[in-house]
Amino acid sequence: xxxxxxxxxxxxxxxxxxxxxxxxxxxxxxxxxxxxxxxxxxxxxxxxxxxxxxxxxxxxxxxxxxxxxxxxxxxxxxxxxxxxxxxxxxxxxxxxxxxxxxxxxxxxxxxxxxxxxxxxxxxxxxxxxxxxxxxxxxxxxxxxxxxxxxxxxxxxxxxxx
Length: 161
Known about the structure:
The protein has 161 residues and is α+β, with helices and mostly antiparallel strands. It has one domain (2-101, 109-160): START domain (Alpha-D-Glucose-1,6-Bisphosphate, Chain A, domain 4). 27% of the residues lie in helices and 45% in strands. It is built from three helices and seven strands, in the order βααββββββα. α2 packs across α3 (132-160).
């Protein structure tokens, strides 16, 4: 199943790139992530608990960030197994800088970054019997939660400066 979309951050491309390449942030933003432990550069052992419909369960496996072209693109690969089956996600994220939003006065403004993603999601085992519609909804919910959490992390970083 293909899952594609985009999310717009109200921050510069470098700030968004740094945010999404910070393993601590990834661990906090990934819904249900209980553990994200570095095993090599840009590679992590992960443990995630999902509590949605028939996808409910604990999954363990790996997360890797590869093919980095800072700050323009990277590939994300997640391979997880649990008692309800397996999930394999692989795909590209593109970081595109936007024009600053001009305030009412016309000068300055906040830069934006559009993160477009296109991921191939494979599911097997008992969880695969749920059906594409339910799995697609779960995938979109997880992605939405991830990006919403990343947006909150970015806002917290901005207020800490």
